[in-house]
Amino acid sequence: MWCANDWADADVALHHLEREFFAAGAPDVAPLVLNKLFVVGECIGRVTEVEAYTRDDPASHSFRGRTNRNSVMFGEAGHLYVYFTYGLHHCANIVTGHAGDGQAVLIRAVEPLVGTEQMIRRRGRGTNIADGPGKLCQAFGIDIDLNGFDLCSGLRACILDDGHAPPEVPIVTKRVGIRVATDRLWRWSVRH
Q1: Are residues 60 and 102 in contact, defined by beta-carbon separation less than 8 angstroms?
Q2: Residues 110, 187 contacting (CB under 8 angstroms)
Q3: Could you tell me if 77 and 95 are in contact, meaning their C-beta atoms sit under 8 angstroms apart?
Q4: How far is the C-alpha of 125 from the C-alpha of 133, rounded, in Å?
Q5: Does residue 69 carry a pLDDT above 60?
Q6: Distance CA 109, CA 94 (A)
Q7: What is the pLDDT of residues 118-164, one digit of tens each?
Q8: Burial 112-145 (b: 16+ CB within 10 A, else e)
């Protein structure tokens, strides 16, 4: 079993992000997730792009209320909301806010750090491994089985802080891949 200490050098302290970190609104949490470490099994990537979705947002899965598909979004903060889209891809989101809020942060991209060989095998290619939400889920082996998984449990999947701060001035743009509420500047990314 992989252990965070196997990866970190002696001078870096790794901390699991606690539930309180995710308890704020998605637009507040999203930019703070940038540069955190997304861990699934033995794969680790540094979060480089995120989007926020809230219940009052027509582009959000929670906009029309709770359903079987989106019920995790209405649950406790710090859980993974995974859904299947376009009959092709899974997407991974971090539930934020308080139970009943119906909001989440979509993890759009990561920079692969550990387990890259496994990610390349899963993706079947060595470039652009995890630079989109569907690619990321394929690279990390994320599917609907992780829907509802508690990222704060520190087990199979988690978000770690290695002291690498979010960018002071992230790139802020409109969200992509949606048809409504396209004017909201709720997409944040790390400058390269």
Answers
A1: yes
A2: no
A3: yes
A4: 16
A5: yes
A6: 13
A7: 999 999 988 999 999 999 999 999 999 999 999 999 778 999 999 99
A8: bebbbebbeebbeeeeebbbbbbbbbbbbbbeee
- Tokens encoding 66: 């709770």
- Whether 39 contacts 157, CB under 8 Å: yes
CATH class of 13-189: alpha beta
Tell me the HSE value of 109 on the side-chain side, using a 13 A CA sphere. 14
What value does the mean pLDDT of the chain take? 92
Give the dihedral of Cα atoms 109, 35, 80, 131; nearest 10 deg: 10
Give the closest residue to 149 by CA, choosing from 95, 89, 69.
95
Strands 80-85 and 157-161: unpaired
Domain boundaries, the chain: 13-189
- Residue 184: helix, strand or coil by DSSP? coil
